[in-house]
Amino acid sequence: MIGHIESFDLGRQTGVIKSGDSFYEFHLDQWTSPGEPETGDDVMFEQKDGTVTTIGLVGVYLENKAVKSRMIAVLLAFFLGLFGAHRFYLGFYLIGLCQIVVTFLTGGYGVLWGFLEFALLLSKHMDKDAKGRPLK
After folding, report:
1. What span, in angstroms and rounded, lies between the C-alpha atoms of 59 and 68?
2. CA nearest 47: which of 37, 38, 55?
């Protein structure tokens, strides 16, 4: 079956998968892919009698293929960098929120942060999205 990780608690080493309208609990011992599961990952899993037996990444997460465009991230950083739009696009939601807060608390000087990241994206020093996949 294919599903989506709704939540994962590393302390308890358990998580919840949503597939269609059903929810399935899993334990880290059933994880077959490298790294740790993360909320939002698309997964393929097998279940028997409502219990997950194996679970692993599926699709582009498994292949580590580029999904996000560098050019879109560069344009977002240039035009909306003070709001962290490029960070939201790349999946770094907390950093994007921090950029918004810094921009408002400094009266607009957060634009410098966005401009620096525009330069880093343009020079290919920022080259991965939040899932560790390279940018196109």
Report:
1. 14
2. 55
Q: Are 91 and 131 in contact (CB under 8 A)?
A: yes
| CA angle 67–42–60, rounded 5-degree value | 30
Q: Kindly report the CA angle at 90 between 13 and 66, in degrees rounded to 5?
A: 90
The pTM for the full model equals 0.65
- What is the chain's Cα-based Rg? 18
Which tens digits make up the pLDDT trace of 83-126? Answer: 999 999 999 999 999 999 999 999 999 999 999 999 999 999 99
**Do 127 and 65 meet the contact criterion of CB atoms below 8 Å apart?**
no
Predicted confidence at residue 33, as pLDDT, reads: 83
List the structure tokens of 92: 């770094």
User: Distance between alpha carbon 108 and the CA centroid of its chain, in Å?
Assistant: 27
Total residue count of the chain as it appears in this document: 136
In the structure encoding, which two tokens stand for residue 12, read together? 């308890």
What domains lie within the chain, and their CATH numbers?
2-63 (2.40.50.140), 70-122 (no CATH)
Place of tokens 């939601």: 93
Give the DSSP H/E element, type plus range, for residue 102.
helix 93-105
